[in-house]
Amino acid sequence: MVDLHWKLNMPNSDMSSKSPKLSISEKSSPRNSLPSLQLPSITNDISAAAPPPCAAYDYYLRLPELSKLWEPREFPNWSNESILKPALQALEITFRFISTVLSDPRPYTNSREWSRRLESLATWQIEIIAMLCEDEENNPETRGTAPTAYLSSGESKIRSYSETSLLPRLATWYKSKDVAQRILLSVECQMMRCSYTLGLGEPNLAGKPSLKYDTVCKPNEVHNLKTTPYDDRIDNCENNAVHATHQIVESWIHVSRKLLEKNHRRDISRRFEKAVEDCYTVERIWKLLTEVEDIHLMMDPFDFLKLKNQLSLKSSCYETASFCMRSKELVEVTKMCRDLRHKVPEILEVEVDPLGGPRIQEAAMKLYVAEKMNGFEKIHLLQAMQGIEVAMKGFFYAYKQVLVGGDGEVLRLMETELE
């Protein structure tokens, strides 16, 4: 796997404020030695921001209350409950986000593009949820453990879909009807390879049992967390957008953490196929997080700048890293993904050469060429792990570009106003 040099892209408090200089030792001759480059010491580790910013971040997102909805185990026989529950709750927050955006009273918002972005975001999440459900059904140990039921329809008083999710209601509102119906069709298509469906009002043409969505997701409790602690003194429509965006991000980060913890507990050398499935899911989640962060570019630049001032968020050249690292679980998941490279020697069944020899590279080339037919599962796992690394780096790069692009647009607007 490609080595990660995270601190090269992160601000380091130990770095000297002076620029590095070239210097020549007094005892050495310019003809016999090259000048040494004096670089500040850099550690190959990442850490969360200071406790006060992290606490403010958690308080703003109501993260302690949201995390309580992730943890309860109400179905002891369902091993994937801790993974699918936050995923479904993130999807439900997206439905709430759609309702909020389409109710925005500002005449200068691009409602059509907002609808397209959020529909795409919901479709991304449904695809990953379907992957999790398929992996669960393909595993003999977990097959048939999800809480499902054949919900009656027709003359029965029992509805054939969720009673508390926002999606069925969005499908009846004239502003969101087309978006919601396309999302329902996405549920039908993505869940086609699974033995059950989500029960959100999708056609369910195969007549499959439906997941007990309301019992698992608890939409009413999720929507009780839609307000921020500052709503009484902040009158800014972008406040709801930032709040919902980061709640979605935190929910999916938690899903990634649960998948990585499951892989860590598993003997990876004997369960390659399952590890490959989980790693590809984690890769898709990182790409989803990039998609979520891109939504910030849709926010009105001036209103977003006003919100940053109202929330007392510092604006500096290092804000990309500092604000990103306020999410303690994001930092932890990043470390877990980075540490996957330590599994490479175990997968290749070779010890690392303490002298820095090419043992790992030689073992990898032998696997790719000579042992390809018998070791294809190992190749798939190495590809999946490298996919995680690429997607993770892409997320952090995109995060920086979003903030730089947004702040640049704000500055241009302020210059126009001053002129």
UniProtKB/TrEMBL annotation:
It holds the Pfam family Hs1pro-1_N. InterPro entries: Hs1pro-1_C (IPR009743), HSPRO1/HSPRO2 (IPR038759), HSPRO1_N (IPR009869), Trp/Indoleamine_2_3_dOase-like (IPR037217). One of its GO terms (molecular function) is metal ion binding. Residues 11-37 are annotated as: Disordered. Residues 191-404 form the Hs1pro-1 C-terminal domain. GO terms for biological process: defense response; L-tryptophan catabolic process to kynurenine. It comes from the Eukaryota. Residues 1-188 form the Nematode resistance protein-like HSPRO1 N-terminal domain. This is Nematode resistance protein-like HSPRO1.
